[in-house]
Write a structure and sequence with these properties.
Layout lengths: L7 H26 L2 H17 L1 H6 L2 H20 L6 H5 L2 H12 L4 H8 L3 H17 L14
Length: 152
């Protein structure tokens, strides 16, 4: 008996998506977690989740869908690591603003590339970057800027 298979187009679309985004996902996770091995495991799990939910992701926006899963998974792993020196930006800013700042300012990603990775358009990314700068400048100028607990 033959197993039921997804169409080849879905398989190749997912494979292309992974090839396009995997390196950036790992860099983001490593920057937040400070541990390349843990970052690799988290990204592997996120991509497996995306693969299993690929039809749902295609009905939404695959980049936005997978980015939400990645951000949430890295946040969970970061909390379990319990190293307060790590992930300061995400403790100080709303998630999207922190992600935008990390990708653009810390990892040096061009705004267009960062926006595409997050499932945003470029103007939306610029709004998040401006929010991050404003919030950080309004506090002490450090990533702790007095904005802990802010939401998206």
């Amino acid at each position: 008996m033959s197993r039921s298979r997804k169409p080849a187009i879905a398989d190749s679309g997912y494979a292309a998506f992974v090839q396009l985004h995997c390196r950036s996902y790992r860099a983001y996770a490593r920057a937040r977690l400070g541990d390349g091995a843990l970052a690799g495991l988290v990204v592997e799990q996120v991509l497996r989740c995306a693969e299993l939910s690929w039809t749902q992701a295609l009905n939404d926006d695959p980049a936005a869908f997978t980015w939400r899963v990645l951000r949430d998974s890295v946040t969970l792993a970061s909390r379990q690591a319990c190293d307060l020196r790590l992930d300061r930006l995400h403790r100080a800013l709303p998630d999207r603003a922190a992600d935008a700042a990390l990708l653009h300012e810390r990892l040096g990603m061009a705004p267009r590339a960062a926006a595409e990775l997050m499932g945003l358009n470029e103007p939306q990314l610029h709004v998040q970057l401006m929010a991050a700068r404003r919030l950080l400048a309004g506090g002490t100028g450090s990533p702790h800027g007095g904005t802990e607990g802010a939401e998206d």
